[in-house]
Design goal:
Number of strands: 6
Distance between the termini: 6 Å
Helix content: 40-55%
Bound molecules: flavin mononucleotide
Mean pLDDT: 86
Low-confidence stretches: 108-115
Strand content: 5-15%
Order of helices and strands: HHEHHHEHHHHHHEHEEE
Largest sheet: 4 strands, antiparallel
Radius of gyration: 24 Å
């Protein structure tokens, strides 16, 4: 059997099997929950399991690429929701969404009708009983002793770039070197030693730039992969626990969100997790029963089986 698509192999498992339970959980997790039952309280054990999913899932070389904020405080969650709402009256708050903002076809109607209702994006999926915010994080392990003795442990090839950046000025600028403390010089010499081993000529500005750019590209990819794995693990875990979930990368007011949660670096993703409302369509706006969000059909993913 080769080159089959999803249609060629029946992916649907038999009734009442573990596979069917997982099949359903995966499909539930694919969709967004736009309203929540806030009368119920999420058990602490469930919160712990979801936080475990977000923090103990796999990542390349087990590097930590994000910091996690887990929020159940209602007032804070309302403020987070506000940060994901795009309002034309606050263009200065649109962070990196300049073009996406103009995509919405009915934006002219917004003044008459008020926000949302299909004119501008609103993200009530972040109003869950539990909200997770992933913050960019970069504090890589650095142990100078291991660093020289045992490259594998202390200086993984990509994360090491941050150490290079830290001492770059001292590597390249003689006056910075002269002004440095003994500790800074020691650190710089260790970095230089590893760069020598890696055959990076740090006296050549272009080569050092190339090295840094290449490592940064790989790190960025690892970081987004780690975030994706975490979001996927949270999604499936929460779904198996019976919760509805929803992601939002539409973060319009980053400065406000950063201040609200005391974040040093940028928010990467917000996830709302919570109890579904009985008898209510998952796509109904949490704050407006009169508005139902559309749904986007999953684009078929081509599968190539090689047996
Ligand atoms: C990483 C990620 C980011 C997302 N960001 C948003 C978002 O900002 N706003 C939104 O409405 N939906 C967002 N979604 C939800 C997806 O668009 C949704 O999963 C897809 O439309 C299918 O769900 P549906 O059946 O509810 O449409 C995001 C999903 C993922 C996985």
């Amino acid at each position: 059997m080769a080159n089959n698509t999803a249609e060629a192999l029946n992916l649907r498992p038999k009734k009442d099997t573990k596979n069917m339970e997982l099949f359903k959980a995966i499909h539930r997790a694919q969709h967004v929950q736009r309203n929540f039952d806030l009368n119920k309280k999420m058990p602490e054990q469930d919160i712990s399991t979801i936080v475990t999913a977000a923090t103990q899932c796999t990542s390349k070389q087990n590097v930590a690429h994000y910091k996690l904020h887990a929020i159940t405080n209602r007032e804070i969650i309302e403020e987070i929701y506000d940060c994901t709402t795009c309002t034309p009256e606050h263009p200065e708050e649109a962070q990196g969404q300049k073009y996406a903002r103009n995509y919405y076809p009915n934006k002219g109607a917004v003044k008459k009708k008020g926000y949302g209702k299909g004119n501008y994006p609103e993200n009530p999926q972040v109003l869950g009983n539990l909200v997770l915010v992933f913050e960019r994080y970069e504090k890589f392990y650095f142990n100078p002793k291991k660093f020289t003795n045992k490259m594998g442990d202390a200086a993984n090839p990509q994360t090491f770039v941050t150490q290079v950046e830290e001492v770059r000025e001292l590597l390249e600028d003689a006056s910075a070197w002269d002004a440095a403390t003994a500790k800074q010089k020691d650190r710089t010499m260790l970095v230089a030693e590893v760069l020598d081993r890696m055959d990076v000529d740090y006296h050549d500005k272009d080569e050092l730039d190339d090295y840094i750019n290449e490592m940064r590209r790989t790190l960025a990819q690892d970081s987004f992969t780690a975030l994706g794995i975490a979001a996927g693990t949270v999604n499936l875990t929460a779904s198996q626990l019976g919760y509805g979930t929803g992601c939002s990368t539409c973060i319009m007011n980053r400065p406000k969100l950063k201040k609200l949660l005391g974040m040093k670096r940028d928010p990467l993703l917000i996830m709302g997790i919570g109890f579904k409302q009985e008898g209510k369509n998952r796509r109904v706006h949490h704050k407006d029963d009169g508005y139902t969000f559309g749904t986007i059909k999953k684009q078929p993913i081509e599968i190539s089986y090689i047996n």
